[in-house]
Amino acid sequence: MTTESTQEPTESTAAEAPQESSELESMRAELARIREDSLRERAELDNQRKRLQRDVDLARRFANERLLGDLLPVIDSLEAGLAAAGNDTGPMREGMELTLRQLLKVAADNGLTAVDPAGKPFDPEHHQAMSMVESPAHPPGHVVQVYQKGWLLNERLLRPALVVVSRHE
What are the tens digits of pLDDT across the range 63-97? Predict the structure, then answer.
């Protein structure tokens, strides 16, 4: 007795093939959607991580902004005291110079830099004009005198320089 191993497709198996194909296509579409969602969520998490890292970096760079801003009048006072002392030499002047150097070093180590624009063009981003004067020795729009130095903290303006600006007739 021999049995035939090949079966002829019946109507029920022929009807199941398109249904399986349809299910397969819908599963592939669902898989593609899930992959897109996964990639989108991964990108969003990466963006959040970068944003958080940027915020932390900014917080570190400017965490001491208030303290350094409060020290600026102390620096101004020490510089004014040294200017008033003139060429006087002695332990008091040496102590003030040493104190000022140490204070400026600590400030610089924390990202503080002076804006001393004497003789340079007026920059409204970093300077505040207190007045304008006729000055044949300076080109128009240049700083003639600095009343008070300005300061930058990590390239961001902490205090503008107070200046006198030249003008031409």
Answer: 888 889 999 999 999 999 999 888 888 888 899 99
CA distance 60 to 82: 33
Does the residue 2 lie in any domain? no
Residue 5 lies in a domain: no
Q: Is residue 21's pLDDT more than 70?
A: yes
**What is the dihedral sign for C-alpha 18, 19, 21, 22?**
positive
Q: Are residues 78 and 125 in the same domain?
A: no
Domain count across the chain: 3
- What is the DSSP secondary-structure string of the chain? -------PPPHHHHHHHHHHHHHHHHHHHHHHHHHHHHHHHHHHHHHHHHHHHHHHHHHHHHTTHHHHHHHHHHHHHHHHHHHHHTT--SHHHHHHHHHHHHHHHHHHHTTEEEE--TTSBP-TTTEEEEEEEE-TTS-TTBEEEEEE-EEEETTEEEEPEEEEEEE--
End-to-end CA distance of the chain: 124
